[in-house]
Amino acid sequence: MPTQCLFRDDSYLKTCDARVVALTDQGGIVLDRTVFYATSGGQPGDTGALTTEAGARIPIETAIYTDAAKSEIAHVPAAGAPAIKVGDAVTAMIDWDKRYARMRMHTALHLLSAVLPYAVTGGSVGDSESRLDFDIPEAGLDKDAITTKVAEMVASNAPVSSRWISDAELDANPGLVKTMSVKPPMGTGRVRLIEIAGLDLQPCGGTHVRTTGEIGAVRVTQIEKKGKQNRRVRLALA
Question: Does pLDDT of 17 surpass 90?
């Protein structure tokens, strides 16, 4: 059963009321709706808790998709968590500080990909440090110069927005896709675009801040050579 993914329309939602609609063979809890971001695109799933009507608290260690179309989310409870059953009403709440840090970092990575307009071969979103891998042939990269350019984009306080386009529209505009290793989820008929006004536009299912100014100070901490044409650029919240 498809999960209503509330975070796709509002990354700032911290809590929601929901109902248990299924339990997976691995013990995952599927809700009819959720604020929990599920692991994908290099961004980890949210942590947090579900609270039952009786007041039982079920710590959630992560959230994962159960299907390739990324339509159903299972919430993975911590070992020894109280039992729950299909039909139970719960309140879902994420660990907001961790989520917000990842929103800032994920948006900063979009700016990094705008500063370095090369194909992205991999990436990872962390709470304080993240990375992108670029397909760059023997390029001399200056981490201070990149930091300065990203800082200028942050300071511009550009608005960040999302909208949906059809699978067909994306197929007609392949240049929107920057990632070589992770393709945007298709098959449901629509794809989510993230636009940073005047700076970046690409398909992305992640969570982001509303303006670049919310990112705060960031800096490139390291540039590593990971292959003949692969450069790993690490970015950290200052």
Answer: yes
CA distance 131 to 129: 7
∠ Cα 14 16 18 (to 5°): 145
Question: Strand 57-65 vs strand 73-77: parallel, antiparallel, or unpaired?
Answer: antiparallel
Q: Give the pLDDT score at 238.
A: 83
Other C-beta atoms within 10 Å of 85: how many?
9
CA dihedral of 51, 57, 59, 65, whole degrees rounded to 10: -30
Same domain, 42 and 110: no
Residue 169 amino acid letter: E
Are 54 and 161 within one domain? no
- pTM confidence score: 0.91
Domain count, the chain: 2
Q: Give the mean model confidence (pLDDT) for residues 158-180.
A: 75
Distance, CA of 119 to chain centre: 19
Residue 86 reports pLDDT greater than 80: yes
